[in-house]
Write a sequence for this structure.
């Protein structure tokens, strides 16, 4: 678990930059050193979804089934867990560099292809 780095120049992204990118729906990060566009990998998106949803759902099912904890205790635990995950996300996600011009050219080639 380390902060993501640029694949091209190994520049470390700041925690704040990664957190903002995650907050705005996995926005790509452009490296300040080399200008390379880096996007969150699909596996990281799945991992974030699992870490965000599954434990809270399991906690709700556990509390509902056992009634050991009060509602306020459960709410505090859920909030602490959510804040902890949000603070750790920049260390969990992985970024991969992409060449935006190549992606645009590939889309144009698909549109212009004749069958």
């Amino acid at each position: 678990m380390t902060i993501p780095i640029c694949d091209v120049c190994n520049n470390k992204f700041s925690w704040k930059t990664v957190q903002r990118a995650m907050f705005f729906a996995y926005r790509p990060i452009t490296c300040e050193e080399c200008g390379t566009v880096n996007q969150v990998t699909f596996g990281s998106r799945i991992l974030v979804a699992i870490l965000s949803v599954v434990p809270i759902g399991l906690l709700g099912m556990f509390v509902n089934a056992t009634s050991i904890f009060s509602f306020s205790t459960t709410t505090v635990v859920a909030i602490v867990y959510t804040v902890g995950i949000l603070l750790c996300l920049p260390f969990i996600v992985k970024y991969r560099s992409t060449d935006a011009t190549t992606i645009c050219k590939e889309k144009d080639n698909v549109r212009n292809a004749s069958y």
The first strand starts at residue 29 and ends at 30. Residues 44 and 93 are 5 Å apart (CA to CA). Strands lie at 29-30, 37-40, 95-98. Residues 42-66 form the longest helix (25 residues).
